[in-house]
Amino acid sequence: MPANTIHMAESSDKRFTDVVGVDEAKAELEEIVLYLKDPRRFTRLGGKLPRGILLTGPPGTGKTLLARAIAGEAGVPFFYTSGSEFEEMFVGVGAKRVRDLFREAKQRSPCIIFIDEIDAIGGSRTQRDQQSMKMTLNQLLVEMDGFEQNNGVIVIAATNFPEGLDRALVRPGRFDRRVSVPLPDINGRLQILELYSSKTKLDKCVDLNVVARGTPGMSGADLANLINQAALKASLDGANAVTMDTIEWAKDKILMGAELKNAVISEETAKMTAYHEGGHALVALKTDGADPIHKATIMPRGHSLGMVMQLPEGDQKSLSRKQMLARLDVFMGGRVAEELIFGADNITSGASSDIYQATSLARNMVTQYGMSSKVGIMFHDLSTNAVGGQTKSKIDDEVRLLLEQSYERATALLTAHRHDLETIAAALMEHETLSGAEIKAILSGKGLTNRNKPKPGVLQRAAAARSVQQ
Ligand SMILES: Nc1ncnc2c1ncn2[C@@H]1O[C@H](COP(=O)(O)OP(=O)(O)OP(=O)(O)O)[C@@H](O)[C@H]1O
Ligand SMILES: [Zn+2]
């Protein structure tokens, strides 16, 4: 096949309603649709557009689908390519392909060029032929630099590894708008499950809220697959509807097939994480000098099962001793909560990063900030041999003391407010993510007011209506 006929424009029948649970990304992309519908009018009215848009996020979260939906909404041609495709057939033709692609796209404008896995040409690793890749990448940069604002071609690229991209690609005037397409939260998962089960007959025992709660870490593609597998199994079994058991079966099947096994967490782990993060949050809330909580979450991300994010107030170039002690206490809060609720035998390794951070802070207090009377106001450089054995052990004693006292303060605090800890943990298990304000509202008994809780979808409402009737 001659290289210049390889790029065929598709017409997309996808719409924004086909992509759910990623509302923020959709909102950010809406103006692109307006632009594509009438590029000249848009720019005449003063609209400024990014040249290229980078969709970032884990596999299967709907990046390709979103790009197709933009084309569908705007009614413009969609050129699909993937980074690996440029090089895979004949090494060295990548640059020519890029040139051909853009030429064709300009002829069909307004239109969308979508480049999946852009890291395959724009990344630094895994390339067989560095020289050829560079030429491909350079050609892409040349094409993008040659764009005029109103020529009607929008380039959208997707990657799972934005960090690995060549700097030149993300410079202003190139892929200068980044839109994140994250794994869906509980509400998003519910919407995706509803979308894909709308054409499937569900038994009334199926509560998609429960399924959504039990599938953290799954992407949209996983959830679509979950419903599909369950429907297949039900029809093979000759059943006339998908039951909760069938869904459990499908979930196991998917988890076994994927590395997701670690990503999707068990109910038990979720509970442990909820108390752990709840412990951090409650100590932060009740300790004078601690930074305010931005949010707490038990959504797994990377290697972490959850986290509490704090927002330091103002611009903190230096911290007081009181603020440092508060930080130590907040670090301790996670482990202390685990121990308090589940017993000393059941504490987990989940606190290892907390312990590491607390220890480094305590050590800095002793060796760099002159905050230990026993060690004195003196800088000790532990990375050299300049610190004698006796001093070293004195330093260790002081660090240990700081950590132990902090552990005791956190234990006293969480023991006294155990009920609040349970309230936060329960709310985290229900909602996965809570803002600082929401945590305060829950503790003051106000509950969550204007939060878009997982709304009972059509199917649940129907199921609820059925169960009331019976
Ligand atoms: N948010 C979503 N809403 C509806 N369907 C989704 C969503 N996310 C994923 N899907 C389903 O999963 C399929 C795969 O998603 P898609 O190819 O768009 O993911 P991607 O983010 O481009 O993944 P990759 O990084 O692996 O290319 C879609 O065709 C769709 O069926
Ligand atoms: Zn922790």
From TrEMBL:
Subcellular compartments: Membrane; Mitochondrion
Keyword Cell inner membrane among record annotations: no
GO-annotated biological processes: proteolysis
Keywords: ATP-binding, Hydrolase, Membrane, Metal-binding, Metalloprotease, Mitochondrion, Nucleotide-binding, Protease, Zinc
Molecular functions (GO terms): ATP binding; ATP hydrolysis activity; ATP-dependent peptidase activity; metal ion binding; metalloendopeptidase activity
Domain AAA+ ATPase: 49-185
Cofactor names: Zn(2+)
Coiled-coil annotated spans: none
Pfam families found in the cross-reference section: AAA, AAA_lid_3, Peptidase_M41
SUPFAM superfamilies according to UniProt: FtsH protease domain-like, P-loop containing nucleoside triphosphate hydrolases
One Gene Ontology term, aspect cellular component: membrane
InterPro entries for this protein: AAA+_ATPase (IPR003593), AAA_lid_3 (IPR041569), ATPase_AAA_core (IPR003959), ATPase_AAA_CS (IPR003960), FtsH (IPR005936), P-loop_NTPase (IPR027417), Peptidase_M41 (IPR000642), Peptidase_M41-like (IPR037219)
Family: In the N-terminal section; belongs to the AAA ATPase family. Belongs to the AAA ATPase family.
Protein name: Peptidase family M41-domain-containing protein
Organism lineage: Eukaryota, Sar, Stramenopiles, Ochrophyta, PX clade
